[in-house]
Write a sequence for this structure.
């Protein structure tokens, strides 16, 4: 049995409650304690209260592309975390936003169900290059 300090934590940020719940459940099935947020202020508050081992963040929270800077912040605060951005359109502007924000994993939300996307997020290699 894992102790409270042994359990891994994931941050899931998505404005759609159905997607948020699906991602939350997919992480929970993998043994993560999940902190869910539907907006940027709630996600930023969570960053001050928890340590995260993984994060799956929607590219579009309040505005188009505003999830990329948040993902970059998560990656800088928790350099060993697996951080991924889920986007509805993986195109050149999204790729540039990901690169400019320091995001190392970008997935198309249409590429699979929540379990597939969470598994994809967990394969993101932290910037240090160390696999956890």
């Amino acid at each position: 049995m894992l102790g409270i300090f042994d359990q891994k934590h994931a941050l899931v940020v998505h404005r759609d409650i159905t997607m948020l719940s699906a991602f939350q459940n997919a992480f929970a099935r993998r043994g993560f304690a999940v902190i869910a947020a539907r907006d940027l202020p709630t996600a930023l508050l969570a960053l001050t209260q928890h340590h995260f081992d993984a994060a799956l963040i929607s590219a579009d929270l309040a505005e188009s592309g505003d999830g990329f800077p948040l993902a970059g912040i998560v990656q800088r605060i928790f350099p060993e975390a697996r951080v991924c951005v889920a986007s509805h359109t993986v195109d050149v502007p999204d790729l540039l936003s990901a690169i400019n924000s320091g995001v190392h994993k970008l997935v198309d939300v249409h590429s699979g169900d929540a379990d597939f996307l969470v598994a994809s997020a967990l394969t993101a290699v932290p910037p240090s290059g160390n696999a956890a």
Q: What stands out?
A: The chain has one domain: 9-122. Residues 9-122 form a domain with the Rossmann fold fold (CATH 3.40.50.2300). The CA atoms of residues 112 and 120 lie 10 Å apart.
